[in-house]
């Protein structure tokens, strides 16, 4: 049905506004655009002959009223006559009013159906003047950005926040001059759709059958699109630019459509408001155009106090409940989410009604959830639960664990029936609000909050064996724990904590009393055996383990003896802390370690910068940090400590240094990577003059200024300092800093290894080389990879090779050495006085020409044992030259790396000759070269020669076909002393 606008204004009037040439162009574009909108074409002969009035009549006769206007506005846009579209928008304000009325009714209804009525009543529908001012600032005039991202955890109220904006706009309180239309897209609904266009989505939101889409899109700068729960689409916005679409009338899969909209390929002039989870936000802003990122934190203290007063009419009880919440950081963080604040208050009220001490019964997160759910299924005034209540809770636990293993938060009726919840049970469960009816889809349900689902899932493992679950995806206790410690998804946040927390004696007693039987006593030892296995793993699986999650689980359990046993298993730990509670929980576990050998931690934003007026470290925070640092003195096997990606203020740094200086600190290796010191750091360097055990210092990615370099000099020149290895990669060193390092090289008698990679040394390289030539310099290993060394440096480095009495390892990788620079170095390498044993020249732009000089070095040098020329284009011709040298009796090389050097089967016969001739070559890396089956077959012939001395061969079997892999496996079986490494 046409709106009043279309009844009152004729198409002819707008067509009359077109100039003659524009009118002819209009007809041509009309023929192109109608198929795009899925409309039948008007015979071209009639269009071509038509006057303006006749064309208007043709449009209205062939298409429904609003379809005619849609295609007309679309052609106006193509013509560049947005002024006509704007005039139509102004004169058709009736459409805006119709749409606002529809949205007002829809979202007021949504807020009224809030899962917890009291939350909706007191916090959602009350759009105050103060809140309107805040909402206006989200898109205040003059801001460059048109994309606002709101991120917050599940349950914090992101959807409710969007609904409040829509209600305020529809009532005329905000954005009246900014937005003519606001469209809300729920990604939970979108992901169920097939291919769809933006035009269709707008039409779906319109209150009547025919939406004035072209009229709306005539002014995209007056449109706000809200995209809610973006992570539900599973999109990371990484589609190639070429795959994105720009036509809002063209249908695409929802994921691609939203990517095109968010990345401004489609309707770039529009405004966007996107809600997403914190995890989905990571890296997303890099792919959006100038996004404004905001955090939605939920209730603050004031909100909580008001809300609690509504639950507790008695003021004294309300104050007691608020004190419990305020004094417990974990409970406080839960109560920032409105729905969980309601749950916590209900649980506290029940405990108070029963005369219990809430500070004792609800001091842990698990205890709060246990109290809520057990009381929920115990009839008021009854001594215990009914059999129906017991059965309902067991069924909910079965449903919850199925959801965990299938990554499901929304359940259909079939899921409910499978887990023992029939249609007759639903009204009671919905009334109890443990299950909620989803508004996004009919006949679908979810738990009150995902954390309630996680609690029920953990409880399932105490009630039943996973093998008895009707869904095959449900796995055992050990798999649950490992998945919790390694899961990257959003829905495995608390389940591990609940699993451990339910083993607390107080919780076990409550559960035994509720169900009338003793729950499984084997759980604790199953978990311990799993952690035993976890302690033994290495590699990728260990790197993916979130040890902080384990700390939280043990902290929730609050059984010191068990925690001692578990932490004694751990020899290596890596974790990050982000706030004071993380630090407290980590300290609780770390102070119980006794066998730790390696510890790596990050303290991202725990310690405040006092210089900028922020609060200093609290006494509890400092105590926790002291307990973390005390592992340095309580673990006699601890050899490696890494603190990375952290900010340390003075109290934090002094606490760390105090532990490092203790006589019983036996640490040898200290890593301080990407550290910001909000204080003077002299205390750190002074540690090395007091602790004789410290031999290795890695300051890579930590910015070092003049003061730090002077402190380094004082430290390394001190006779009590035993530091042997110093890594200063990517420390933004200057030429002046190199002068300080030069002095260190001359005066230090113990420094043996120095790594200066990823620093632009410039003229500072000259000072370093002069120091390396000094008779007093004892440095043995020098790494200058990616230091942007210039051509004039090679002469200085050649002098170092000739004059240094100690240097045996030199790494010049990723510098533009080229064949010319290599020639200069090779002259020195050939000289009998050169003592260099290892030379690394990875990615140094060496070609076939440089291999001639390298070959001459291999046949003349009496010291060189290792050569790495990985990722240089030496190709088969260059390799043949090297093979000639390697086969000579005078060549003493033991290790050669020619990974990714463009070698083919053409050089493999020469390589096979080397394998049969060389008495010294024991390690050869050929990974990344397309040698082919014939080339590998030739190598295998050489390997079978009785005189072959090779022990390690670098070849990635995955790069070859099945026949070649079989050949290599047969060679390994024939020669047990040969190792074929697939990565090097």
From TrEMBL:
**Which stretches make up the NACHT domain?**
146-280
Supply one GO molecular-function term: ATP binding
One of its Pfam families is: NLRC4_HD2
Ranges for domain Pyrin come to 1-95
Q: Does the keyword Nucleotide-binding apply?
A: yes
Keyword Nucleotide-binding included in the entry's annotation: yes
Provide the alphabetized UniProt keywords: ATP-binding, Leucine-rich repeat, Nucleotide-binding, Repeat
GO CC terms of this entry? cytoplasm
A biological process (GO) annotation for this entry? regulation of inflammatory response
Quote the PANTHER family the UniProt record gives. Answer: NACHT, LRR AND PYD DOMAINS-CONTAINING PROTEIN 12, NACHT, LRR AND PYD DOMAINS-CONTAINING PROTEIN 4
> What is the name of the protein in this document?
NACHT, LRR and PYD domains-containing protein 4
Q: Which organism is it from?
A: Fukomys damarensis
């Amino acid at each position: 049905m046409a709106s009043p606008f279309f009844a009152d204004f004729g198409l002819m009037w707008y067509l009359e506004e077109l100039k003659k040439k524009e009118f002819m162009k209009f007809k041509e574009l009309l023929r192109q655009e109608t198929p795009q909108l899925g409309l039948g074409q008007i015979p071209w002969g009639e269009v071509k002959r038509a006057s303006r009035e006749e064309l208007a009549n043709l449009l209205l006769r062939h298409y429904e009223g609003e379809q005619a206007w849609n295609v007309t506005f679309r052609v106006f846009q193509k013509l560049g006559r947005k002024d006509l579209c704007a005039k139509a928008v102004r004169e058709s304000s009736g459409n805006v009013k119709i749409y606002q009325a529809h949205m007002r009714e829809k979202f007021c209804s949504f807020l009224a159906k809030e899962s917890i009525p009291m939350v909706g009543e007191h916090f959602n529908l009350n759009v105050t003047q103060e809140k309107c001012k805040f909402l206006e600032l989200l898109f205040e005039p003059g801001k460059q950005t048109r994309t606002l991202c709101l991120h917050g955890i599940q349950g914090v109220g992101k959807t409710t926040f969007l609904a409040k904006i829509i209600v305020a706009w529809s009532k005329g309180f905000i954005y009246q001059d900014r937005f003519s239309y606001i469209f809300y897209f729920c990604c939970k609904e979108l992901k169920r759709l097939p291919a769809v266009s933006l035009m269709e989505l707008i039409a779906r939101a319109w209150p009547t059958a025919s939406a004035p889409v072209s009229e709306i899109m005539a002014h995209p700068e007056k449109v706000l699109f809200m995209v809610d729960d973006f992570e539900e689409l599973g999109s990371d916005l990484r589609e190639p630019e070429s795959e994105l679409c720009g036509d809002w009338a063209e249908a695409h899969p929802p994921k691609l459509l939203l990517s095109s909209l968010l990345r401004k390929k489609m309707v770039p002039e529009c405004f966007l408001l996107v809600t997403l989870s914190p995890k989905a936000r990571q890296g997303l802003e890099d792919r959006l155009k100038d996004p404004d990122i905001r955090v939605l934190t939920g209730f603050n203290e004031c909100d909580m106090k008001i809300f609690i007063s509504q639950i507790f009419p008695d003021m004294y009880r309300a104050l007691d409940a608020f004190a419990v919440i305020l004094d417990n950081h974990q409970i406080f963080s839960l109560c920032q989410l409105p729905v969980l604040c309601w749950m916590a208050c209900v649980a506290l009220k029940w405990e108070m009604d029963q005369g219990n001490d809430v500070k004792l019964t609800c001091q842990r997160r698990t205890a709060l959830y246990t109290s809520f759910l057990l009381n929920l299924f115990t009839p008021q005034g009854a001594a215990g639960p009914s059999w129906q209540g017991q059965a309902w809770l067991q069924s909910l636990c079965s449903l919850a664990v199925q959801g965990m293993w299938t990554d499901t938060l929304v359940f259909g009726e079939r899921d409910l029936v499978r887990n023992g919840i029939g249609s007759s049970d639903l009204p009671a469960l919905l009334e109890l609000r443990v299950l909620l009816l989803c508004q996004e889809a009919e006949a679908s349900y979810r738990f009150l909050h995902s954390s309630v689902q996680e609690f029920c899932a953990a409880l399932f493992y105490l009630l039943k064996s996973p093998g008895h679950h009707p869904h095959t995806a449900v796995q055992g206790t050990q798999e649950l724990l490992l998945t919790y410690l390694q899961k990257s998804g959003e829905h495995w946040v608390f389940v591990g904590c609940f699993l451990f927390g339910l083993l607390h004696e107080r919780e076990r007693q409550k559960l035994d009393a509720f169900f009338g039987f003793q729950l499984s006593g084997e759980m604790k030892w199953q978990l311990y055996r799993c952690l035993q296995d976890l302690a033994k793993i290495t590699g990728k699986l260990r790197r993916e383990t979130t040890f902080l999650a384990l700390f939280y689980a043990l902290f929730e359990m609050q059984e010191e003896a068990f925690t001692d046993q578990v932490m004694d298993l751990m020899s290596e730990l890596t974790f990050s802390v982000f706030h004071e509670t993380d630090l407290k929980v980590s300290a609780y576990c770390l102070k119980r370690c006794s066998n730790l050998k390696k510890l790596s931690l990050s303290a991202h934003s725990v310690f405040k910068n006092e210089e900028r007026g922020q609060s200093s470290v609290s006494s509890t925070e400092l105590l926790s940090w002291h307990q973390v640092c005390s592992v340095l003195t309580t673990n006699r096997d601890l050899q490696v400590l890494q603190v990375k990606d952290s900010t340390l203020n003075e109290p934090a740094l002094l606490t760390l240094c105090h532990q490092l200086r203790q006589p019983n600190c036996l640490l040898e290796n200290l890593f301080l990577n990407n550290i910001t010191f909000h204080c003077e750091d002299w205390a750190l360097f002074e540690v090395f003059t007091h602790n004789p055990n410290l031999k290795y210092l890695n300051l890579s990615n930590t910015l070092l200024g003049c003061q730090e370099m002077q402190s380094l000099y004082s430290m390394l020149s001190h006779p009590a300092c035993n530091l042997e290895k110093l890594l200063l990669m990517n420390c933004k060193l200057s030429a002046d800093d190199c002068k300080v390092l030069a002095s260190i090289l001359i005066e230090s008698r113990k420094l043996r290894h120095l790594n200066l990679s990823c620093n632009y040394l410039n003229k500072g390289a000259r000072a370093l080389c002069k120091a390396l030539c000094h008779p007093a310099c004892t440095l043995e290993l020098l790494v200058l990879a990616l230091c942007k060394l210039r051509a004039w440096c090679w002469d200085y480095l050649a002098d170092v090779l000739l004059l240094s009495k100690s240097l045996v390892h030199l790494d010049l990788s990723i510098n533009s050495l080229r064949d010319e620079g290599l020639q200069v170095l090779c002259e020195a390498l050939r000289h009998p006085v050169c003592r260099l044993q290892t030379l690394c020249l990875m990615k140094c732009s060496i070609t076939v020409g440089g291999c001639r000089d390298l070959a001459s070095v291999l046949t003349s040098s009496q010291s060189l044992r290792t050569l790495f020329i990985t990722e240089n284009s030496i190709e088969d011709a260059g390799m043949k030259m090297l093979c000639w040298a390697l086969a000579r009796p005078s060549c003493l090389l033991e290790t050669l790396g020619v990974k990714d050097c463009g070698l083919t089967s053409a050089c493999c016969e020469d390589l096979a000759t080397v394998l049969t001739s060389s008495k010294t070559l024991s390690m050869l890396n050929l990974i990344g070269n397309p040698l082919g089956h014939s080339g590998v077959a030739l190598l295998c012939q050489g390997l079978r020669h009785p005189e072959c001395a090779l022990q390690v061969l670098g070849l990635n079997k995955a790069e070859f076909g099945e026949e070649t892999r079989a050949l290599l496996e047969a060679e390994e079986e024939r020669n047990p002393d040969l190792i074929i490494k697939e990565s090097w």
